[in-house]
Write a structure and sequence with these properties.
This protein is an alpha/beta fold. The protein is built from nine helices and eight strands. α4 runs antiparallel to α7 and α5 crosses α6.
Length: about 270
């Protein structure tokens, strides 16, 4: 899948990987330690996650820009993307946002309805749940204090309710981070984005989203529970929900229904 992958930087400094064939689909991914085009194992993981979309769409996997201010907001991130997409396309484009990228995509669709043709939001809602907010702020604090192992264990609270599972999952992510993202990571952009998402709440403005919207999530998502997913799908003007039984926050992208449902909505 790495064949034909093009790395570039969009207007405003937003990194983008382009691959696949067909009509363009802008994908805004989840939180990541590096606001740069992924390389090595990180790139392979990103391409694997979205490869099914690339079979019928030209995927533009757009990251957040580097150099974020500590008090950046999701509205600021959405404005970055609006400018970059206007420069790249000059017309409404299909957008798919995942987790943190889903929050940015919802904000973008509300602020700039002229930029989004159709919208898919995966593992995200008009705000994260109470546990999700607590985890995001705690993870940001731990990373800022240099306790990356503790931060990954805290992040795992959004993935499993098991204390043992949290330690195993968190430690596994902590141990593999240097292999995936390299050593000596500057986490300031990651921390800023996590805090922005924790403060995010688009609930009062959902009705301003006019793009046909599909919300995809899992009924076992601890960070973004089903009640919020339903509220988001019901709050936009033209929305529907695909809720996958037995899936948590990190399991939706691995579900074989995900690319089928997303592409059916977009097409």
């Amino acid at each position: 899948m790495s064949t034909g992958v093009e790395a570039a930087v969009l207007s405003g400094g937003l990194p983008v990987l382009r691959f696949g064939t067909g009509a363009p689909l802008v994908v805004l991914g989840g939180a990541t330690p590096l606001h740069a085009n992924p390389t090595g194992l990180a790139r392979r993981a990103a391409l694997l996650a979205y490869r099914a979309l690339g079979r019928s769409r030209r995927v533009w996997l757009v990251n957040r820009r580097p150099g974020l201010a500590p008090d950046v907001t999701v509205a600021d991130l959405a404005a970055d993307h609006a400018g970059a997409l206007a420069s790249a396309f000059g017309a409404p484009v299909d957008v798919l946002g995942v987790s943190t990228g889903g929050s940015v995509a919802l904000q973008l669709a509300a602020d700039r309805p002229d930029a989004v043709r159709r919208l898919v939001v995966v593992g995200a809602a008009h705000r994260v749940g109470d546990l999700g907010r607590e985890v995001l702020m705690r993870v940001a604090d731990l990373h800022e204090r240099g306790d990356s192992r503790g931060a990954y264990r805290e992040f795992a609270r959004a993935g499993t309710a098991s204390e043992v599972g949290r330690r195993v999952l968190g430690d596994l992510q902590w141990l593999t981070e240097p292999l995936v993202f390299g050593r000596h990571i500057d986490r300031s952009d990651w921390v800023a984005a996590l805090r922005a998402e924790a403060r995010f709440d688009l609930g009062p403005r959902l009705s301003e989203i006019t793009a046909p919207t599909l919300v995809i999530g899992g009924d076992r998502d601890l960070a973004c529970p089903a009640v919020l997913l339903r509220a988001t799908a019901g709050g936009v003007r033209d929305g529907r929900l695909a809720l996958y039984a037995g899936r948590g926050h990190g399991g939706v992208l691995a579900d074989r229904r995900f690319p089928r449902d997303a592409l059916a909505h977009l097409d």
